[in-house]
């Protein structure tokens, strides 16, 4: 399995982050990841089809919100909180407080 591509902090764009967070499913994923250290895709799928969940994780990765690493046959996801906070101070705090 090839590794996922993640944008560098300097490549994070506010409009992509806001677009990714504008979907309630993706926002729920980010909220869950904000409460835990890491989670598998299966823990975050909410009973949705794999193809739908894959799409949502792709959007989150491309926006720079989520880091996905392969561990054996599992995909472990973490919120890139420090990266987002360094690029857009206070943004996640304000969004997650809602």
Protein model, in words:
The protein is α+β, with helices and mostly antiparallel strands. 52% of the residues lie in helices and 14% in strands. It contains six helices and three strands, in the order H-H-E-H-H-E-E-H-H. It has helices at residues 14-21, 24-35, 41-44, 50-63, 81-87, 91-96, and strands spanning 39-40, 66-71, 74-79. The chain has a three-stranded antiparallel beta sheet. Strand 2 and strand 3 form a beta hairpin. The longest helix is centred in the middle third of the chain and has 14 residues, at 50-63. 20% of the residues are buried. The mean pLDDT is 91.
Global shape: globular
Alpha-carbon distance between the two ends: 37 Å
Helix amount: 40-55%
Described by strand count, sense and barrel closure, the largest sheet is: 3 strands, antiparallel
Strand count: 3
- The side-by-side strand order for the widest beta sheet comes to 1-3-2
Series of H and E elements? HHEHHEEHH
Give the strand content: 5-15%
Compute the CA-based radius of gyration. 13 Å
- The tally of helices reads 6
| Derived structural class | alpha+beta
Give the rounded overall mean pLDDT.
Answer: 91
Q: Runs with pLDDT <50, length 5+?
A: none
């Amino acid at each position: 399995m090839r590794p996922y591509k993640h944008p560098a902090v300097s490549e994070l764009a506010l409009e992509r982050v806001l677009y990714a967070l504008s979907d309630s499913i993706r926002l729920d994923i980010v909220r869950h990841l904000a409460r835990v250290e890491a989670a598998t895709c299966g823990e975050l799928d909410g009973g949705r089809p794999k193809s739908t969940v894959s799409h949502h994780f792709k959007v989150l990765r491309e926006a720079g919100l989520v880091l996905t690493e392969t561990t054996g046959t599992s995909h472990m996801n973490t919120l890139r909180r420090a990266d987002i906070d360094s690029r857009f101070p206070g943004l996640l705090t304000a969004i997650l407080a809602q």
